[in-house]
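Pipeline run #58 for the internal structure catalog. This entry was flagged by the ingest filter as a single-chain record with no existing model, so it goes straight to prediction. Upstream metadata was stripped on purpose; only the residue string is passed forward. Reviewer on rotation: M.T. Logging verbosity set to normal.
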Amino acid sequence: MRAHRIPDTATLFAKALCYNRGQAEVRIRFQKSEIIMSFKTAPFRYLILMFFVLAALCSGVAFTATSRAQQPKRAEQPKRAERAEQPKRSDQPKEVTAEQIAESVIVVAGSGAGRAMLSQIRKNGLERGRETRTGADGRAEEIRYELRFVHGDKPDKDKVRLDSKTPQAEYSLVYGEGRLFGIINGATFAPRADTAADFIAQQAHSIDTLLRYKENESKVTSAGKDKQQGVELYVIDLVDKASRKTRYFISAKSFRVLSLEYEETRAGSATPVKYTKRFYDYRFAQGTQLPYRTVLLEDGKQIVETRILTVQYGIKMEDSLFQNPEAAASSGNP
């Protein structure tokens, strides 16, 4: 047999694999020759063996540490998901108060200037228009009217005069100095109970009542939200010093009063009647906004439609327009 020199690498490898150095032999085929190796000493194999043992131990320690490091991360994932689901406090919508809504309505009515503009421009005024009243029999009656007013510091200081002209008669209803009286053909008269109630209700349950709620020392409270015909609405209740309540429905987009509701109990009746005012055709008049068309419903049935033809603010009006002519005549006599 030919003897060949074995590479050092093969020798080291063979020694490392020998566990019984006194008897172990390894037969290696090398280029069609068989080589027999006998290892009497193999100190290097123990080093290799120790190397693999240490490597295995280090791998186990590293795996254990890695597993422990990964466990908290997995536990934190649900917490992070919960935090992501919870909205931030700054993202949560804040509730709008009734006063904020009322003040927004005032700002819009005053074309951005609010109460300052309304107090200056609408201190007094003259409104001319047309009313269509529908009776219980379904017949409609048209009335031409002129409404004059002077706003005082308080509601009891207000002065209002309504001149009406029907096909049958002309008459006036005057409110001043805390009392209501009528004038026809220059003579005064006491209006009927239902006529007086209607006149007072028209003034007490109006948009102007909301625009002047602070001056009148009225209280406003929120009644939540509503949606009518696809329009989002704020709903607020106003109670004046006479404990009269009016509910306003205000557009959440434009902050215009779209409608209002109130109840009145007629004299001799124990059942309250529900009235609804709906406002249409908002226009500008001397820098302020107001509806030029109003519809009044009684228990859901239309009874009055009012259309403004012209309106003027800041005009001069004589005090005699709001005085009782008989009282003025008697005071002028010696």
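catalog note: The radius of gyration is 48 Å.
catalog note: Confidence is low (pLDDT under 50) at residues 9-24, 28-32, 37-42, 61-65.
status: ready for reviewer M.T.
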